[in-house]
Structures
1.
Amino acid sequence: MTARTAAFVVALVLLVYLVLMGGRAITMISSGEPVFIALGLAILVFPVLGAVLVADQLRFGASTERLARRLDDEGALPDVSHLPRRPSGRVERDAADAWFDAKQTELESSPQDWRRWFALAQAYDLAGDRNRGRRAMRKAIELERDDR
């Protein structure tokens, strides 16, 4: 199963859960009892919030894939195949840190280039800092959108 398929399966399962929770919330709200109305409204917040978060993550994934395809078509997709790996498949820490430093230096020379932000996001991911990697990828997506 690919990561993309897994993401859609998880999103579908979550969607079913959110629909069921939303149904329970509506049942509680329509009961007419003040306590149940308050609980129903509180429960209704979670399905709505969950749906918004899932939609955002799916949109983020699709945008990331689009940028990767575009870079691949241009022949500019960052290549990490030369980096030494552990038996687990992860890039060795020293190599990931060195590659990160190189990508950060490249970004400093061209901070408005979405391609540099994409490479930095990948470097953050290899270095194990996924939060900053996601922020860098969001910046790449934003800059690429402005570039079109």
2.
Amino acid sequence: MAKQTIRSNSISRRRLLTTASAGVVLAASPFRINLLQAQEATIKVGFPVPLTGPYGAEAQDQVRAAEVAIAEFNEGGGLNGRKAELLVRDDKLNPGEAATRTLELIEKDKVNFIVGSLSAAVQLAVNNITKERQIIFNSISQSDIINEVSDFSKYTFHEALNPHLTAGAVGRYAFPKFGKKVAFLTADYAYGHEMVRGFQEAGKAFGVETLVDIRHPLGTADFSPLLPRIQALKPDILCIINFGRDQQIALKQATDFGLKKSMKIIAPILLYTARVAAGPQAFAEVIGGTSYYWGIEDKIPSAKAFNDRFRKMHAGKVPSDYGALGYGGVKTLLMGAKAAGSVEPDKVIVAVEALKFDYYKGPEYYRKCDHQAVQSVFIIESKATPQKGDADLYDVIATEEPNEKNLRTCEALGHKS
């Protein structure tokens, strides 16, 4: 029995050595390395946006465009074989709900990045969570505050335009052409307030006078009590500063009231989805700004490539303006991770800061001090009659090319030079 025991141990020891030797060879082989990397968890991108509520149409298009970025990344091999996935959550256009959903995405779902938001206030709530948890957040909603030193962190990126840039571009185009006396009809929250400030800053160079700034709550259904007051002031320009369904209703009622006969109506942002919903009459002759319009594909190859892929994945539709931001916000972080060879936040931050890219709208990069995307602003005018199908809604009448001089300075935002 003793000999049998010794023999049995000897066999086990030989088998163990043989297995260990094979394991060393396997572990050292490229096949083994690739296999381990392929088995790593997917790269998770949390995507909180307001799928329900007044901005639902815009948010749903952001999801569709983000799916294009995910598909392209995965088809391009991912990150050393690691694929990406999009985890969409409804933030209900509510800061508290957005904070809760973001916290769940980070702590429960273990996301690597957060991209999203469609409200200035909501994105700040998300940003508070992500910077505390040291997770990179790329905001796809307009905001000036998110770039300021009090809210910014190294984990914060801002793919969207900001109100200073957007309103400034539209103002620099409109004020010399249409006059100096300006009235504002403004949604009473951060987005509206910041847009007014942007127009007024741009207007200083042209001697613009603010006649009135009438503020209304989100979800206003009837603007008729406000319109006679505006008409009585006889402005040269009426700036309608709101979003989503509010924009549709305000422009329709202003048109029905006859304001277009005596003043030029402009908006900092003209929404593709709002124009589709409201029809041509409400938007006719209105001028505004946008970060993206699918019609630029005639001149910008990257826009054509993005549009074609979007059409292929989404039944022939074209992406909207805010939809394109969903694509850009996700794409830049994934490409930053690929450039870094890692999803470690510090490495990705350095890589994204170094990106000089043209993914969907022409040249773009992130300014290092505040991670604001330096990009073009397109000035558009609504068409009365589409000529290239139902999606042919706007003419691009001017382009303000990427220029840091059009942004608030790093020093003005509180960052050290």
3.
Amino acid sequence: MTITLYHNPRCSKSREALALLEEHGAEVTIRRYLDEPLDEAELRDLMSRLDADGEALIRTQEPEWKSLDVDLKDQEQVIQALVEHPRLLERPIADDGKRAVLGRPPEDVLALLHIDE
């Protein structure tokens, strides 16, 4: 099984999640979502596999977010905000194609490997 990690190498939590997956022998494909942003269809698909709502995917402490007028309860508005501002996507996210997990804390990504730490 290959796990796609939506990754920002400048983020310590993202680096920790990658290290944990690699330590446990996972085959990881890295998607640097800031260099290769997700489009609307990809975001919808990813959100359908997440155990979290759209609200959990937004980095609400970012100044960029605070300047937007987006209702966190409106999935369409959240998706559009993420398409236009990929920097707002919470990270890391690990995705095995059937299920996706937000790596907050990073150990949560191990759920895809059926490992509890």
4.
Amino acid sequence: MTLRTGHIGLNVTDLDRSLAFYRDVLGFTPLAEGKEEGRRYAFLGDGENLVLTLWQQAEQSYASQRAGLHHLALEADTIEKVREYEEALRAYGVDFAHDGVVAHREGAGSGGIFFHDPDGTRLEISVPSGAEGAPAPSGTAPTCGFF
């Protein structure tokens, strides 16, 4: 038996703000929501499957220097779709780690965009190919490892 990722759970400081971001900007579908004071959460999916759960439990923003989640990587179908997300994220005012599409490392065809959600959690939207010729901010080191 091989394990695979079931869904991702993120602690957030403001459920309404994070729900709007993941729903309205990234296009996740709300599947269920808990509204009881002190136990607020939202289940988000792709229309059928649970993909992401937001838990309003955090008192502080994401901190990259602490052990735990490094970043959440999402995969798009095409580089054009990545660029569509980039445009929507820029319109939303998201903080990007790099300017535009970048390669995962020098000479790689894979790559994408790297940015932060409303709580500072590091996110990536990438494709396995289509980013040939894009800059590689970390040289031969993995771009997704250092942002």
